Amino acid sequence: GGSVAIFGALRRLTLVLPQPAAVRSRPGRVWRWRNLLVSFAHSVLAGLWALFSLWHSPELLSDIQDGYSVPGHLLVCFSSGYFIHDTLDIIFNHQSRSSWEYLVHHAMAISAFVSLIVTGRFLVAAVLLLLVEVSNIFLTVRMLLKMSNVPSPALYEANKYINLVMYFAFRLAPQAYLTWYFLRYVEVQGQGAFLTANLLLLDAMILMYFSRLLRSDFFPSLRKGSAGRDVDGEKFLID
Predict the structure, then answer these.
(1) What is d(CA 22, CA 123) in angstroms, rounded to the nearest whole number?
(2) Which position among 15, 86, 134, 237 has the lowest Cβ density within 10 Å, counted as fewest Cβ atoms?
């Protein structure tokens, strides 16, 4: 609850922050800009928090199922609050149609994280998954740069390659390791079965997002037409 309140306050703070002309000129972008700024704040805080949790207690990596640390537990609570806040933000601002994939992702994350908080098991797996927020820092910067039409292609180009490296290091690698671990060592029943199913669905979503990222930034000629565009004429998940 405290986490939801924190992100609600951050969202209000975005009201007083300056917006680029390219954002102000298109009403559909204003909500998205504010939403991305809150997402950026979560990524910075949660990404650094996840790194600190693993640095502070490296022994956790030897017990993914039952390892426990207070920083890790609080991190999962903190990020659960963000996903709840972002879900409400999307729904109450009538962005469900253009952001439905985020709603699916958030529902998976919230349900999985709540089960971890209640049982105290697999918290280490959640911390490893939240390393993805390090990657999301650069992914969000990428989207903010595109929306603001920053006249510095060099900045976008540099972030593009950093984003790709971070995607491999903090999104694909932890996800691949956890998928292997769950399929090999975790019982396929009860909470283990539920988390494994969530993990496999997340694998599919991550690979889909990765293919979109490659097409958008590295192989633009392979991008499809206008199918699936939102009311502002842009694909949120691609652009």
Answers:
(1) 41
(2) 15
CA distance linking residue 238 with residue 64, whole number of Å: 33
Q: How far apart are CA 107 and CA 114, in angstroms?
A: 11
Q: How far apart are CA 134 and CA 213, in angstroms?
A: 17
Enumerate the H helices of the chain as residue ranges. 2-13, 21-24, 27-56, 70-92, 100-119, 123-129, 132-148, 153-167, 173-185, 190-217
pTM greater than 0.70 (yes/no): yes
Question: Among 113, 140, 142, which Cα is nearest to 129's?
Answer: 113
Question: At 114, which amino acid appears?
Answer: V
231 pLDDT higher than 80: no
Report d(CA 118, CA 111) in Å as an integer. Answer: 11
**Rounded Cα distance, 10 and 141, in Å:** 17
Res. 76: pLDDT tops 50: yes
How is 166-210 classified by DSSP, letter by letter?
Answer: HHIIIIIHHHHHHHHHHHHHS-SSHHHHHHHHHHHHHHHHHHHHH
The model's pLDDT over 26-54, given as tens digits with 9 standing for 90+, comes to 877 899 999 999 999 999 999 999 999 99
Q: Which amino acid is at 83?
A: F
- The domain limits of the chain are 25-216
